[in-house]
DNA sequence: TAGGCTTGCCTAGAGGTCCTAGGCAAATTA
DNA sequence: TAATTTGCCTAGGACCTCTAGGCAAGCCTA
């Protein structure tokens, strides 16, 4: 029999595609094994366990998201940068729902430090260079922005905004306008 | 043998306590059966399946959260109401992590309409009576507030703010200050 | 209080996921 | 080509979900 040629990376990549198709919570070792036409037990020489697989997926997604956002940010500043960041973030979540859910996994400090999770906050900070903010206001603003972006796409996907006809796009644009205006006149 | 006296309500209540202890994703039919000292199969005359159990838990948590927030809001207005709302929301999430996770379940439109999910948006709207906002700005503001609150507690619990020493409480207070100031000068 | 009825919890069992131990054969190295 | 490493296998245990069918506890009615 020819071998399937599994590696941790190929498994993680396939897990990411699977996550977007069937949802993060349905990314299972067995499903992944089925996808490669091998037995479940075969995967355990490449990944430690199901949790390890999900962590790898989370790290992959965080790196992808950071790349997308970095691209969007290139050469922009001020409100332009804020909007580009936010839209890139939200677009990634929409295009890759399973991967995005993975980015919300609680990672242990070690993994988080190694992964692109930190890069994320760093880039949010880059946005703020267009505004007149210094520590500790900067950290507060980073947290506020991140919270709002994540909260919005998270609620949007949970269907929390369906109850009202007002367009979800319009509210998003207004939220960004609001945040821009808030950053420009950050209260003392 | 004496009967255990199970009902859907008692199961849901116990599931809520279990969720806060071991996490929402570990709320399982078997664990619940163990808690009552009965066999798993016995639960299926009270709940349809595991998903049904989790939906009931979500509905319970949404109702509790709505109650807490309503209490906090009583007799307050303006920034006072905003802060009370936000703190009640966040405190519930901290005190009942499993239940709070349950509130984020995607409910089908029917269930969502019946449950307290709608009451939530309605109360957020009550806050805004202290500010000078009218449709569609009001809906946009409701969505922004809800997003920020949810995003903040969600990231906080995922450990996203651990990387920086700046106090999580301080950033939260600043976020509320910021939102208040934003609502008072909502850009046109 | 004795019968019948409803209903609650039971046993039995099938199917799925997670994971370990140990084996054989393919690929790599000497 | 022989030795070693490595990859995927079979076998099997533990746990979770859910269905079908059974027995008896507790309720009605007479």
From TrEMBL, chains A, B:
<dbReference type="InterPro" id="IPR001647">
    <property type="entry name" value="HTH_TetR"/>
</dbReference>
<dbReference type="InterPro" id="IPR009057">
    <property type="entry name" value="Homeodomain-like_sf"/>
</dbReference>
<dbReference type="InterPro" id="IPR025996">
    <property type="entry name" value="MT1864/Rv1816-like_C"/>
</dbReference>
<keyword id="KW-0805">Transcription regulation</keyword>
<feature type="DNA-binding region" description="H-T-H motif">
    <location>
        <begin position="28"/>
        <end position="47"/>
    </location>
</feature>
<keyword id="KW-0804">Transcription</keyword>
<keyword id="KW-0238">DNA-binding</keyword>
<dbReference type="Pfam" id="PF13305">
    <property type="entry name" value="TetR_C_33"/>
</dbReference>
<feature type="domain" description="HTH tetR-type">
    <location>
        <begin position="5"/>
        <end position="65"/>
    </location>
</feature>
<dbReference type="Pfam" id="PF00440">
    <property type="entry name" value="TetR_N"/>
</dbReference>
<dbReference type="InterPro" id="IPR036271">
    <property type="entry name" value="Tet_transcr_reg_TetR-rel_C_sf"/>
</dbReference>
<protein>
    <submittedName>
        <fullName>TetR/AcrR family transcriptional regulator</fullName>
    </submittedName>
</protein>
């Amino acid at each position: 029999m020819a071998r399937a040629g599994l590696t941790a990376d190929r498994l993680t990549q396939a897990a990411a595609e699977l996550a977007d198709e069937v949802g993060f919570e349905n990314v299972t070792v067995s499903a992944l094994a089925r996808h490669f036409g091998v037995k479940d037990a075969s995967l355990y020489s490449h990944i430690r366990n199901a949790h390890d697989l999900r962590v790898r997926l989370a790290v992959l997604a965080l790196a992808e998201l950071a790349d997308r956002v970095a691209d969007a940010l290139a050469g922009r500043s001020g409100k332009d940068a804020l909007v580009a960041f936010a839209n890139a973030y939200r677009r990634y979540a929409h295009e890759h729902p399973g991967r995005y859910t993975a980015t919300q996994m609680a990672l242990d400090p070690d993994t988080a430090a190694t992964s692109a999770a930190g890069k994320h906050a760093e880039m949010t900070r880059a946005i703020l260079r267009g505004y007149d903010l210094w520590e500790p206001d900067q950290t507060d603003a980073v947290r506020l922005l991140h919270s709002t972006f994540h909260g919005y796409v998270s609620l949007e996907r949970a269907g929390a905004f369906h109850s009202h006809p007002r367009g979800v796009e319009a509210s998003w644009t207004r939220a960004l306008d609001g945040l821009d205006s808030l950053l420009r006149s950050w209260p003392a």
